[in-house]
Amino acid sequence: MDIGANIGVHSVIMSQEVGNGSVFAFEAQRIIFNMLADNISLNSLSNVFCCHNAVSDAQEPIDIPKFDYGKPLSFGSVEFGGSKRSL
Length: 87
What we know:
The protein has helices at residues 9-17, 30-42, and strands at residues 2-3, 23-26, 48-51. By secondary structure, the protein is an alpha/beta fold.
């Protein structure tokens, strides 16, 4: 699993490593998810499954902030939720 897959750099590498296995790539940001899916498609990776979801240890909705993707920001290091629970 590639949780917070961003554009799928690790998913591409993992797809080669798992051979006949599968990679599930999760990305919550819609624009970034579209780039992930494009990257997987352009690389013809039939063993990578892209999921437009956030992953959490809780079953509750979380807010995904709206970003201006035209401005510089490290979109791969953004955290969602705001849970104050300690693990």
